[in-house]
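Q: Give me the 3D complex with glutamic acid.
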Amino acid sequence: MTLKNSTDQTSVRVRFAPSPTGFLHIGGVRAALFNWLYARKHQGQFILRIEDTDLERSEDRFTQDIQASMKWLGLNWDEEPLFQSQRLEIYRQRAEELIATGHAYRCYCTEAEVEKMREIAMKEGKKPQYDRRCRDRKDHPVGQPHVIRAKIPLDGSVEFMDLIRGSIRFENTDIDDFVLIRSNGAPTYNLSVVVDDVHSKMTHILRGDDHINNTPKQMHLYQFFKYPVPQFAHLPMILGADKKKLSKRHGAVSANAYRAEGYLPAALLNFLARLGWSHGDQEVFTIDEMIQFFSFDHVQKSSAVFNTEKLLWLNGEHVRKASPERLVKIVIDDYSDLFGSLALRRASSPLGVQIAALIQPKVKLMKELADQMVPLCTPGAIEVDPSGLKWNKDAALKAATQAAVKHALKIFEQRVVDALDKAQTTELRSDLDHEAWGSAPSLSQVGMDHADVDALLRQVSEQHGIKLGDLAQPMRLVITGRLVSAGLFELLAILPWDIVSARLSKVEHL
Ligand code: GLU
Ligand code: ZN
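A: Here is the predicted complex, encoded as structure tokens.
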């Protein structure tokens, strides 16, 4: 007889079942994502199960990291997470039930004896298996150490329709009477997985293809427990650029390392979804689009190569898609330690959002956004490195540019002073009360927008016989701390005048 998996489509219930023996890694995130997408697409339930039965290798900090990383990614789970370490007694009871129903038996052979049996089987050209000698044993020596083994049928086969790989078949003679409970009472992976999948009423098992060989064993157990065998989908492996299994050698592999480097959850998920899955030739997906379009029909069987450059590109795409408000929130959540306390206040103000909106088109990583926001939110002048300025090779250009900046500064200042004199009660005053704006208005608040700033600087540069670009270069450096930055004219228009004047005054002394 051939045991097959069930095809009735009841309401979808899937799980992500990591072992907390390390930080949540990229392969785990992808398994979690595909389960999550499938559940969300079918209005099903997505369960988190912590497989912490290996008490020596499992650590609480890794359990914390898995949950924190999943929250960061927005892979929210339904129901209370299941912890296998709290269910050890249940696995033992379920194994005893299998003995009672004739699907399992106690085996008193020692490790050394079993090892011998395997060697003999190999010598005879067979698979290294336990020789089943305790299968029908009638005597049960009291108090003697033993394991509990599954009683796999001696003929027939197991076949399942993998949603990614198609039909996969195993002969029962190739399946060992594998251990369910070890001699120390601990359950094996195959037992605890199935007990919990039955307990949580799983309909689909989506996991890495390193578990394909466990599937026939687990299918027998589902049947022993009289539970309809779920659907399976085994995801292809993720490889590094050198086509070897992705590992720490390839650089960052944990989700939190990507967070620290400045990747956005949406970009990382988009990237991982595209590792092995496609929807036409679309590359950039929002989370909602991924949910809408996801299906196993378009998951490839072959392993997928992790392309760091593509991830970086995608992150830039998602940075551009995000609202500046959201970007600022992430900067404050993840990079607050880069800012001084006043700078942090400014970053969280409407000014911070305006600054972020200007930088947003120019960066790929959130870390870059934070790095560029820091000097722009910091009060007063900042340290700069003038060694890259063009005027270093041209003393006359330097003199002319310094004079031009001084001139422009004077005109700007007059505009601010005039506006403050004119402002009696009014809007401008109340704007100034906003502590994050510092003590002075911006040029745009006194009626000069970036186009006006542009026009004025053009005019000043002509008057001083220099190019606009030559005038702008040292201004950009003192304002932003960088030679390449977000739009200078926009920044001059929106930054509080106290910052602009303190910084432009430094040009004279460079
Ligand atoms: N704890 C197993 C793993 O991390 C779960 C495998 C499964 O999903 O059945 O590989
Ligand atoms: Zn035995």
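A quick observation: The first strand starts at residue 2 and ends at 3.
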